[in-house]
Each structure stands twice: as C-alpha cells, then as structure tokens.
Amino acid sequence: EIVLTQSPGTLSLSPGERATLSCRASQSVSSTFLAWYQQKPGQAPRLLIYGASSRATGIPDRFSGSGSGTDFTLTISRLEPEDFAVYYCQHYGSSLFTFGPGTKVDIK
Amino acid sequence: QLQLQESGSGLVKPSQTLSLTCAVSGDSISSGSYSWSWIRQPPGKGLEWIGYIYPSGSTYYNPSLKSRVTISVDTSKTQFSLRLSSVTAADTAVYYCARYASGKYYFDYWGRGTLVTVSS
Description:
The structure holds two protein chains of two kinds. Chain A has no helices and ten strands. Chain A has strands at residues 4-7, 10-13, 19-29, 34-39, 46-50, 54-55, 63-76, 86-93, 96-99, 103-107. In chain A, strand 8 (86-93) and strand 9 form a beta hairpin. The interface between A and B is medium-sized, with 25 and 21 residues.
C-alpha cells in the first residue's frame, strides 16, 4: 500500500509570495496516478491537478504540478487571497485511492 | 452540470449502522465511464477514501474499512448508497460522495458533504 507524506504541515506566506508544497510517496508511482486538491473551510475538495502536472478545467495557471517517482510538487507562483487553504495530494493504485495528510497554506 | 447531494441520518448511535445516500443529477449514473465513491473527513482532519462502485455493481473498498462497508447503486433512482456497520465515535466525520472517471484516477465532482455524528 502506497503511503503519501506531505510537507510542510503548515506553510505561512504572504499574498504575492510563491508556495512550494511537497508530496512524497512511500514507493515509486506513475505520475499518471497523482492528483492535487484544494479545500477551503466548510467546502468539498476541488480538483486542481491530475496526472501530476495537468491543470483541471478552470484552474488558474499560477497553479502548477511537477515531479516523478516518489517526489511530487505543487507550486503556486503568486499567492492570491483565495489560495489560502489546505492542499491534499492523492494517489490511485491497485484499484485503491490514498490521500496525503495535507498542507495548510495560511497567511503570514 | 453534474450535481451530487448526500443525505441521511446525521446522528447515529454507537454499534449501529450508518446509512447515507448520494443523489446524482445532471448525468447518467449508469454510464460505464464513471464510478461513484464515498470519502470521509473527521472534524479537523484529513481525507479518507472509503470505497467506490461501478454501475455494474462491482465494488472496491478501503482495506481498513472493508469488513464494515457496503456501497450499492440504484441506477433507476440515479443514486448510490453507503452503509457502515458497527460505528464508533471514530466514524464521526463529514461524508462526501464523489465521481471518479474510469481511466482518469481522480475525483472530478464532489457533493457538498454531510456531517454524521456517532454518539449515544
């Protein structure tokens, strides 16, 4: 079973700054099966990135994903006020889904 | 526009069975291109995948919950359901239903979620 670890647990930044979030898998995975979600308080998660680097419909281009093997990254190039939220990575493998524990991006 | 709406009991007693339904509108639940999933989130914690079902009835469950979970689909009513037996306080969570597109490996549509509290 793949275990996902996300770091840091909390990222304190100011609007306009760059955010770099990490998702590490316990073993090498195909980038095809790696996705990222954003969740704001009281809301359902929203798909941001799939296939490790493809933006979902309607997602601004300040969001980008990269990585391969065991290390994946979600980058927000310039934080907007609406980007302060919790971000989760997710993996699919052997017909099962796994989520990482999340990274909270809050306002410094 | 696809919409998913969870419904069911918001309060369940310990040792009893939690039952939720997800109503799907705006698309056919019978399409073989999609499967239908349940995901939960304890208060203040992260997301936990529970399981999913194909319109054919084939199911896949989280191994940690498999012995207590049943997901079923009613294509005539365009809804699918979750039953979780022998609940404890640890099962208190917001329960989401979501769509998973076959060959896509992610959840593209989510319901708004419903809070289920396990308490006597």
